[in-house]
Every structure is written in structure tokens, then in C-alpha cells.
Amino acid sequence: MALSWTRELDEYPVGGQRRKFLFMAVLASLICSYEAAIAPAVPLLLPDLHMDLVTYGLITASALVVGALAGMVAGPLSDKLGRVRILIPLMGLTSILAFTMTLVDTPTHLVIVRCVLALVEGMAITTTAPLVRDYSPRMGRAQAFGFWAWGPVGANFISAGIASLTLPMFNNAWQSQFIIIGTLSLIASVVIALNIADLSPRLRAEVLETEKVVIENAEGAPPAKFSTLLTNPMVWAHVIGISAFLLLYLTVTGFGQLIITTTFHKSAAEASFIMAMFWVLNLTTLFLAGRWSDTLQLRRIFSLVFSVLSLVVMIYFATLLGDPNTSTVTLAITGAILGGAMGAAYSPWMANYSENSEDLDPRLQGLTWGIFYLVVRLASVALTIIAPIIVKQTGSWQTWIIVCVVGVAVFIVLMPFYKGPWTRAQLAATQAPVGDISSREDPVVTKR
């Protein structure tokens, strides 16, 4: 009998079984992201290794380049071989590699460990987004991707929360965090391996409206071509726009605690608490906005409204960076509102991107998210190199946050290039008659 993590389903799971597989995919995203978490340890790691911010930025950039290229390889590979066959062994290996962080005592050791970890983690996590798509029909797509984003976002929240609680217990030893990360991740990896399965290539070629209603089936069509996505301007508008939008998210992921401790003179535990407030509202709105978006079957209007709100709050935060006496309460409230607004814009966008790509070819979801990871991580590379230089020259994070504001504006400008209705009236006008949508039992499945 094949091991559970190599199972391949030839019938689409429904009800509780589908939700179980979807939950495992979300949990895998969380664990892969948590395995690579480092932000809570940075304020303690830098002085311990006698390393300045620019050096740390270059090390992080190196790891991000490795992860970006690894993801671009793993995405298309998951379209060919299946998601789970790649995910499970690499996720277990990443959890073991997390323990090696405790052996780091020089910047050279750090760059080696982070690059190896990024290689394995980058390949593993790239398979999780297409896996979530596989188990989420369009009527629940934004909610599903909202939960999926709980992986990268939840990892930051959990790592910040655990650090604020445990660092004082271990005399602020940053190594303690990687022992905790490795232990929890290894346990979770075993649980996921025993409770997940792949869809067959035939099922992955389908586009589902609901669990039982198929609106397109690409099986039997000419072989999928990478150029279908790589030469499409809409795809690049999506990934460039979201990379610009996520500049602040990427900044606080890598430097959040450091910004708080150096600008506002807060302790490491206080900084982790403030960041936890950002993440908890982000997690909440990822789901709530996704659910609302699925109910209305609208994507772009949510991304537009909440990205504008993000822009306004981000400008206010930039002004706070000019006042080092800003209270912890003010920073926590501002961060929570900002995190909430960004989450509400993000989950509908993920559904929009996945569905726009499905409309081009549903067999290329691995490549779809491989492109996403490549561009977003290259944006992270630019950030980790440029941001520390700007901070060093200006003596403040304020200028860089203004750059992040411009990034959100770019996302808003590119939004008209995405596909999908803005209103319910437009949605009704684009829907096909009932006869044009086939159930899974129908012999012919047509595209809406």
C-alpha cells in the first residue's frame, strides 16, 4: 500500500474530506513559512554575530534569490508530478534544517544555513498555493486563499507571539527560537503527511464553480504551454502589482521588530507584541474579506477599496516614524488597522489571480504560483538590499516606508488590467445560462 502522502485521488473529494485536505494544505503553508521565520531573533542576532544591518540585508537577499529560483522550478514541476510528492519530503527536511540555525556563530555560517534552508523551503512552499486551488472551487476560493495566507502571515504572528513569551524565559537567547521552530515543525510535518493527498492530473485540469459543478475541463486539450502565462500582460500586471503592494508586508516580515526597537526604543518583547497586533488583524480580515468576496463573487472592488485604506494608514504610519516618543498603544492600534486593511485587499486578489490564470489554462496553476513567488521574492531581494542602505543614509525608516506607499499606489494603478467584474450587475451580465454550465456527471464540460 502506498504511503498516504503519495495518494492520488481520481474522484474529487467533497464535504468534510475536501475540507480536511484543504486544511492540511493551509497548515503546510503555515509550517513552511514558520520554518523560515527569523524576524523575532534579528534584534538579538545582529549584535551577537557582530553584524550590521547592511550585511544582514545582503545575507537575506542571497537566501531570497535562492528561494525565488527554487520556487520557479518547483511550481511547474508540481504541475507535472503532483503537489504532495514534492511538498512532504521537503517540508520535513526544512524542519530539520531549522535546528542548524543554533550552530550559527558567524555571518558566513548564517549565509550558508539561510541559503540551504531557502532552497528547500522555497520549493516546498511553492506547491502549497496550487494545492489550495486544487481543493477550493471558485465559490469558496477567496476564503481558501485567505486561510492559505494564514500560512505566511500566521507564521509571523506565531513566531512573534512565541518570541514575546519565551525570549524572557530563555534569557533572550535567540537560539531558543529555532529549537522551538524545528520541534513544532517536525511534529506538524508528520501530521500533514498522514492526512493529505494529490488530485490526479485529470482532476487538476478541471475548473470548478462548486464541488459538483465544472465550468471547464482542459483534459484532452493541446499540451499546456508555459508561454500561455509567460507572454500574457495580465499575468505580469498581477504579479508586479502585488509585489509592489506587498513591499510593506515584506518589510515588516524581515525588519518589523527591528524598526520598532531602533526607531521607538522599545524592548524586543514589546516590539513582538506590536507586530503581533498587526498580524492578528491581518489574519482576521484575510478570512472575513475572503468570505464576503466569495458571497458576492466579486474580487477587484475589494482589492481596490482596501488598498486605498492601506495607503491612507501607511501614510499616517510614516508620520509616526518621525516621533520616537510614540506610545506602544498608538503603534499597536495603527499596526492593527494597517494589517487589517492589507489583509482585506489581499485574499480577494489571490482568488482573482488564480481565477484569471485558470481562464488561460487550469493545468498551469503550479507555474502560476511559481511566477508569483519568483517576482515577490525578487522584490524582497531588492528590499533587503536597498532598504538598509536608505536607512543608513537617512538615519530613519521613514523614507523607505514612503517607498512602500508608492508601491501600494502602483498596485492600484495596475488593477484595471486584471479581469473580473467590478459590480454584481457586471457579474450577472457575464454569467452563462444554466445550460452552459455542466455538472460533474455530464459527458461534456464547457467553459463559461
TrEMBL record:
Record's protein name: OPA family glycerol-3-phosphate transporter-like MFS transporter
Main location: membrane
Recorded topology in the membrane: Multi-pass membrane protein
Subcellular location: Cell membrane
Domain Major facilitator superfamily (MFS) profile positions: 20-419
GO MF annotation, one: transmembrane transporter activity
One Gene Ontology CC term in the entry: plasma membrane
InterPro entries: MFS (IPR011701), MFS_dom (IPR020846), MFS_Na/Anion_cotransporter (IPR050382), MFS_trans_sf (IPR036259)
Keywords from the named record: Membrane, Transmembrane, Transmembrane helix
Regions that span the bilayer: 21-42, 54-74, 86-104, 110-132, 144-166, 178-197, 235-259, 271-289, 301-321, 327-346, 367-391, 397-418
